[in-house]
Amino acid sequence: MDLDALAGCLSSSACLVTQTTSGLIIGMLLFLVAVGLTLIFGVLKIVNFSHGAFYMFGAYFAMTAYQFTGSFALAMLAGAAGTGILGLVFERVFMSRVYGADVLMQLLVCYAFVLIFDDVVRLIWGPEFKSMGMPAAFQVMPLFVAGGVVPPYYLLLIGVALVAAIVLGIGLSRSRIGKVIRAAAHNPGMVSALGINTGLIYGGVFALGGMLAGLAGALAAPVRSLTPGMGFSVLIESFIVTVIGGMGSILGALIGALLLGLIRSFGSQGFPLFTEGLMYLFMVIVLVSKPTGLFGKEAA
Amino acid sequence: MTELEAGRAERLPVRNGAVLQRYRDVLIALIAFAVLASLPMFTGSKALLDFVIRCSAYGLFATSLNLLVGYTGLISFGHGMFFGLGAYGYGLIMQRLGVPIPVAFVATLAITAVVATVIGAICVRLKEIYFAFVTLAFQMLIHSTILSWASFTGGDQGLRGGIPRPVFLGIDLANHVHLYVASCALLILGLLAMRQIAQSPFGYTLRMIRDNAARASFLGIDVWRAKLTVFVLAALFASMGGMVMALFVSGAYPEFAYWTISGEGIFINMLGGVSTFLGPMVGTVLLLLLNDTVTRFTEYHGIVLGVVILFFALGLRKGLLDFVADWFAHRRGAGEGR
Fold first, then answer.
1. Domain boundaries, position A45
2. Is A233 an interface residue toward B (CB < 8 Å)?
3. What CATH number is attached to the domain comprising A170?
4. Min distance B102 CA to chain A CA atoms (Å)
């Protein structure tokens, strides 16, 4: 424990800016993964334990696309689109078979794919650490805000995640498709009786969730190292986010992710070894005081 | 369920039935122990004995998890914390205090009971998926504590330097055969005790809570208390499994308290089946066999293991022993029909 370091950081504006931006980065990436998780849970009522694999695939797809084309935009597109298609296939071929089954069976199928996907990545890209490298466009001087360092890439990352959050939020609440999705979450039998293909909606939501996780992976590729199994810690953390924010709530995922990101970045100052412990402690506190999460609705 | 009906029919008209079954269980346990304990006389294979010891550790852990998952319907994702607690508790007591092994054993169980009561009192209030999450959070909290409290627990290196194994009443656990027989004895004793719990009136209360908690509550059962009791009991046996593991590897490592241990426990239960008492034991042997053989043949054992899991989840749709039990029941039913 190093409370002096924490106090010192909180009183210096440079450290405050640096830690806040790094917290925001962690939070935004987590949000993109967690929002997919929470969407899939909200509509399909499935806890997608293999969600971290989509994050991992997003990063690897982006890296490969970047190596071949040299275009950062294409890399992002490859990451998002590739995992979107993967999500659709995964849901239609495998997950759709266990909808009526026990929760444990669903988890088991996901667990199987966590193992398989990790090995597939090892098979294709090799077991060693990889790095995509920062695109040339962002290899510029970092910005200095109140003495703190803010790399321009971070701004792009936060911007993209924010846009995704806004589009999702408005899309779900205003657009026709959004309404159908919410209706399917509420009462799939009725939606299906009204002549809407719920299977397609389920597949679409899963693909969307996978796409968001893939986008997060692609965005993270230039700043994190790539390794098989990289999805795992992200998965656990985004679970914490969805639980804290409330399963099924998009706003909850955003708030939860930002809180967790800040806890991580400032916690690493005050409690360098116990940063992870802090997150779990926070989760326990939220769960015990409000089991449905900060923004979750009472179970119907 | 059928098991519930069977138990009720057995208890009301003929009380002797329950006693008879207890004798039968003890007899089976004695035979199983005799067979296991005589194994070293027939084979000198150290690998086989090691395998059985590992099965004991994981088997105790997985069967205790089944008390929660299968009998009470409490899906715990953090049961592995008690496995880790057992291993660390035992290792630390032996390393620091140098007491006889049984004393350390009982002391560790006592510590586990206290910790499990505190954690359980918080967790069992929550339902279904939230119970799973909060147990997972506690598991990771304990794991982080082990990692960060390096001066006490050895941090990410684990408890190294070996755990002393002083001779007690002529039992020398540094001797491989002694260690083997002791592990088997612990396994059989643990299984027998858990079987008694599962078949007791309390065990049937748990099944009722699983099937209809509201009804149990109307009948005057304190659901919270029953859940807490089984949570603590299951923790004790998981801790026993952890101690067997610590005895075997003569150390304790943070992985013992990591959530993957809980994941493996759930996996073992699914593999073997949760509707029979011995399902988790079958699952343990299956998983360890699978792990050992697959890692020998390929470095991509994740793919193989994953495909096997998919076969169980999408093909059989239940654990192996569940499948066999259903098959037998089906056959018997068909036979009576004729």
1. 16-128+142-289
2. no
3. 1.10.3470
4. 33
